[in-house]
Amino acid sequence: MSSLLPEAELTLPENLIEQGGRYTWTIHARDTNEDFRLGDFNHGSMSKPVSFSVQ
Hints:
The protein is an all-beta fold. Helix content is about 0%, strand content about 15%. The protein starts with about 20 loop residues before the first strand and ends with a strand.
């Protein structure tokens, strides 16, 4: 779990994305007020999977 961010951002470790690789990720939102409808890792707070490949 990451700490709260003031704005949407993503920093990847060096050499994580490689040529010829295929990647998929899903983002989970977190609600600081612990409202189960707005976050806290339930299915309603998950994005759809996003996939991409690197040529």
